[in-house]
């Protein structure tokens, strides 16, 4: 059970951290806290990274393996739970509005595509360890593929690019295997409208 406890704790970091990263102060909006803004958005780029969220399904699939049905189930459950808790927590603390679930239904439904896919990869990694390379390769490629390399100056507001593109208008298509090494890595992260107190 300790291995499941570990992955739960690790998954909680992007789940809650990404929601907290949507807070915006008046000083950030007025340009009086650029250093804080830079730090907030940089952290947002990390905890909102698509491949980071995808890796949770891969890890869960590997932990639940080598039985593939368990890997598929674990990969699906963890990403769906992360998304649901992320949105609910953001709604609770006031950074998301009451339309958060309906406006991001694509990501909830998409978890039933991406979750089994990445969970299966984790399960198969017992037999084909090289499949785990998808995580480090994705981490390296994602900033270049989706043009999210942090600049020194961020515009006011919640994290942009891979960590905070509003949904659904700027969201990518579906969360599916063809985008694994590039576009897909950005698809898996939750895309949320920024409607918190200081974000309108």
From TrEMBL:
Membrane-spanning segments: 37-60, 72-94, 106-124, 131-149
Question: What keywords tag this UniProt record?
Answer: Membrane, Transmembrane, Transmembrane helix
- Protein name in the entry: EamA domain-containing protein
Organism the protein comes from: Corynebacterium casei LMG S-19264
